[in-house]
Design brief:
The strands form 3 sheets. The chain has a 4-stranded antiparallel beta sheet. It has a two-stranded parallel sheet with strand order 1-8. The longest helix has 22 residues. The chain has one domain. The relative contact order is 0.19. The chain starts with a helix and ends with a strand. The protein contains 10 helices and 8 strands. By secondary structure, it is α+β, with helices and mostly antiparallel strands.
Length: 236
């Protein structure tokens, strides 16, 4: 089985010890489900994600699964999905958030995350937070229970989502981030209408923010004795 997987999916085996994946594992599972089911079949997608999650939880190991799924769209548009970070522990989560900011997420969405990623310690002049157009639907659901979840305070701060709770998950961990990133990448109308809160000196300040995030990423990887070659790969 292992040899067969190496033939079908060579890149993860070739690069797992020197490069970083652009996304966490369950995001790839979600992509497969959406592709096979059709983005318009929202309830069926959520049902399949729920069933796979339940099956993985029955095992003896600790699977890298997500707890939340999010759907973003504008009226009568394609639905764009995302899941919360599927990592084991705080540090792996911070590593994957940094990797996604630098390599995977839409630049506007990544900018909003980077604004808070380092608590503005090294980039006090950078503010990449955005306000979504009024017609954007961005709704998160508990995967196992299927219940609608209000946005946390972090998502309220980053994207201006209305009626956030007092709960504040680590910035970049929520399903809203990946879902909105997919929306921004594919619907230029939304990307153009989304309003940056601060626009002064954005390019230079953004470059400083990216350098700070990369420096923090390198520090975290050194802590885990991971020799990174500076490249990212798409796990697929």
């Amino acid at each position: 089985m292992l040899d067969y997987l190496k033939i079908i999916f060579p890149r993860p085996f070739d690069h797992y010890s020197s490069q970083l994946a652009k996304r966490s594992p369950f995001s790839c599972v979600l992509d497969m489900i959406v592709l096979l089911t059709g983005e318009e079949n929202e309830e069926e997608i959520k049902r399949k994600v729920r069933e796979i999650t339940k099956q993985l939880r029955r095992g003896r190991t600790s699977p890298l699964i997500s707890s939340t799924i999010c759907v973003s769209q504008i009226p009568n548009s394609v639905r764009y999905y995302g899941v919360s970070m599927s990592t084991a522990g705080r540090i792996p989560g911070r590593i994957m958030v940094a990797a996604s900011c630098l390599s995977s997420w839409d630049s506007n969405v990544a900018g909003a995350v980077m604004t808070y990623y380092l608590n503005n310690a090294n980039i006090p002049d950078f503010d990449g937070t955005i306000r979504l157009p009024e017609n954007v639907r961005c709704e998160a659901f508990n995967i196992l229970q299927g219940t609608l979840l209000p946005p946390c305070r972090a998502c309220g701060n980053m994207f201006g989502l209305r009626s956030p709770t007092d709960q504040e998950w680590p910035y970049g961990n929520c399903a809203e981030v990946e879902s909105l990133s997919n929306l921004f990448k594919n619907v230029e109308e939304v990307r153009e209408q989304a309003r940056l809160i601060v626009a002064n000196n954005m390019e230079e300040n953004r470059r400083r923010a990216e350098r700070s995030v990369q420096t923090e990423l390198e520090r975290l990887l050194r802590q885990h004795n991971f020799t990174w070659d500076g490249n990212f790969f798409t796990p697929q």
